[in-house]
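Recall the central idea of this unit: under ordinary conditions, the amino acid sequence of a chain determines the structure it adopts. In this exercise we apply that idea directly, starting from the sequence alone.
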Amino acid sequence: MSNRKLRMGMIGGGKDAFIGAIHRIAANMDGQIELVCGALSMHADVAQESGKILFLDPTRIYNTYDEMFTAEARKPADERMDFVTIVTPNFAHFAPAMQALENGFNVVVEKPVTFTLEEAQQLKAKVEETGLMLLLTHTYAGYPMVKEAKQLVKSGKLGKVRKIYVEYIQGWLSRLSEREGNAGAAWRTDPKKSGKSGCMGDIGTHAAHLAEYISGLKITELNASLNIVVDGRMLDDDGAVLLRFEEGATGTLIASQVAAGEENALKIRVYGSEGSLEWAQMEPNTLTVKWIDKPAETLRAGSNYADRLSSYATSNCRTPGGHPEGYLEAFGNLYRNFALALSAKIEGTEPKPEWLDFPSIDDGIRGMAFINNVVASNASDEKWTKYTI
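Accordingly, the structure predicted from this sequence is:
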């Protein structure tokens, strides 16, 4: 383990930006990382003001990420940033991520990893060429009971996986919010900034990642139907996908942002030949396990039967049972695992397997392929689409 904090830079995430603050809280949670520099907005005045609010060294508040990479790369090894976090809208992920890798900096990036699948593939090639690390913040992979679900499936106790049902339901776009001053809605529903899919690109990718992460199975074919429910919207705000997985498993994925009154209802159920599991993001400390021939079990994060849970779950629990852990802690777990793995690499030591359990560029490619295949299936008369990358 390193004897110093890792030095982080940030692109985007200036004042009043929701996700930038989330990343800073998560990175700071375990005292392993410090924010040392940033190009926090595309607007120079906002970038400067944001840096001052965060008490950054005035000489390390940059107006552009080009300026930041140039200046940081020239600094001595014991001063320059170790990695950069990119929290810009989708269309502005690829260029700074590629430039960071070219300048020798590790990368943390919001999902989707890039704007197109082709960009994601180029980024993967650069990651492999440089040997640098990339964390993709699929937040839900950071929850301890999601990790427990993955290990439970992997153990074989549920038997052969047969069915996977996953849904991600929100209601915040039930009105034409993008024309009512909602900045987050404005870029997410703009194909020039968000990409070829709205709802499926924004939250459907989270659901698809969760299904593959927990089950350990890759999607092989899909049959998608996308909808634009709110008049005047340019991208899908609702949809459903039939799924076929490796090893004969099948399932469904439902994503909607027009379910009025819903908050962030992400839920997954995985059914095997011997039992099943169920997890819901709005009750994240609970994993329900049901058996074909014995009573159901309710597993709880932080419980006093921790030896019943896997090391992957317990190493990501932070508080005693009954103290809710949620979104911020899950984000923090991603950053902590990334930081521990990166520190081990810097020190030339072997990281624990639990530290390496975070989404990477490969997950980013799967996510971009999901968007492409869903859009292609929706447009096809044949509907069933081979999952191509």
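DSSP finds twelve helices and 14 strands in the chain.
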